[in-house]
Design brief:
The chain is α/β, with parallel strands linked by helices. The protein folds into two domains: 2-73, Alpha-Beta Plaits, CATH 3.30.70; 118-278, Rossmann fold (3-Layer(aba) Sandwich). Helices cover 35% and strands 32% of the residues. It is built from nine helices and 14 strands. The protein has helices spanning 13-19, 46-56, 65-73, 93-102, 123-138, 155-162, 175-187, 218-230, 248-258; strands spanning 2-9, 26-30, 36-43, 59-62, 79-81, 85-88, 107-110, 145-149, 167-172, 193-197, 209-215, 232-244, 260-268, 271-278. A hairpin with a 2-residue loop joins strand 13 (260-268) and strand 14. Helix 5 packs parallel to helix 6 (155-162) and helix 8 packs parallel to helix 9. The longest helix has 16 residues, at 123-138. The protein is globular, with a radius of gyration of 19 Å. It starts with a strand and ends with a strand. Bound molecules: S-adenosylmethionine.
């Protein structure tokens, strides 16, 4: 394993996030007490890391097993969502128990930094998590199911079960992300979440879900909107994210053309997330 890394000013965080959007091996860490961020990309082959270095500068080092462990001790801060969820990087069972005890009103989700997108820190994930909490609140006492297209670390599907979903299915085309997500399912003791390797561009919807999340980027969403529509029924809700502000109008128009209507659009930094339903079927 090789890691490419570079330090940058925090003011460029959005630009780096954008540059590595959709790159599940990329990790951006804010360094506590400094206005600096560290950008890292974990690569299996040295030449992959060197290609990034050639493009963006920075350095490449081999990641020995002990370095890997050391890295994972440096944890990003927890993410609290609407007083219902706490996404933490902690993975030690005893420490997780302590966190749960200290936050009895929150559902704690453990997502250690790994080679999958979705620690809860990125604007796209954080906004979908908020929308998911609001949706779960509206469904309290009623069963609901969730489809998670482009699951990354599995954070949204795991959150869905913690918030009351009776069933969730997620997929990602990146085998490393799927492995990480499946480990996260075990770590978070989920019972009814299944995550499989699948390319959403080839995947065929076979049933309807109450809640669909697709944090997937514009170019993928463009092709996937009709499949999202086929996965929804008249009461279903959809969260689409991963859309750059500059592309949002075009992207949401394509969603509307496919049969969706968007009821809430949230802009955070350069990222847009939208909540929608099937058009004309409230
Ligand atoms: C922005 S991340 C979202 C991860 C997580 N759902 C979240 O909200 O934090 C997008 C994920 O979609 C996956 N992805 C991109 N294109 C895909 C495709 N064609 N089929 C399946 N997964 C895809 C990427 O590997 C990545 O894990």
């Amino acid at each position: 394993m090789f890691v490419w890394s570079k330090l940058s000013s925090e003011k460029w965080a959005d630009a780096w996030e954008e540059r590595f959007a959709g790159e599940p091996r990329a990790v951006i860490t804010r360094i506590a007490g400094r206005s600096t961020i560290r950008i890292e990309v974990y690569c299996e082959k040295k030449k992959e890391a060197e290609a990034i270095s050639k493009q963006f500068g920075g350095s490449v080092r081999e990641l020995k097993a002990q370095n890997w462990a050391a890295m994972s001790q440096e944890q990003p801060p927890p993410v609290k969502v609407r007083g219902r969820l706490l996404v933490v990087a902690e993975k030690a069972k005893t420490k997780l128990k302590e966190i749960e005890k200290a936050h009895p009103k929150l559902q704690v989700i453990s997502i250690p930094a790994d080679m999958a997108f979705g620690t809860g820190h990125h604007a796209t994930t954080a906004t979908v998590l908020r929308m998911l909490v609001d949706y779960a609140k509206s469904k309290e006492g009623q069963p609901w199911t969730m489809l998670d297209l482009g699951t990354g670390s599995g954070v949204l599907a795991i959150a869905a079960e913690k918030l009351g979903a009776s069933e969730a299915w997620g997929c990602d085309f990146d085998d490393k992300a799927v492995r990480v997500a499946q480990e996260n399912l075990v770590r978070n003791r989920t019972q009814n979440v299944v995550i499989e390797e699948a390319d959403v561009l080839k995947w065929k919807p076979s049933r309807r879900w109450d809640c669909v999340a697709a944090n997937l980027f514009y170019d993928i969403l463009e092709d996937v909107f009709p499949k999202i529509v086929k996965s929804m029924s008249k009461h279903s809700i959809v969260f689409v994210s991963g859309i750059l502000r500059t592309q949002a109008d075009d992207c949401l128009k394509l969603g509307e053309k496919a049969g969706l209507v968007f009821e809430e659009v949230v802009i955070r930094g350069k990222w847009v997330t939208a909540r929608g339903r099937l058009a004309g079927r409230k």
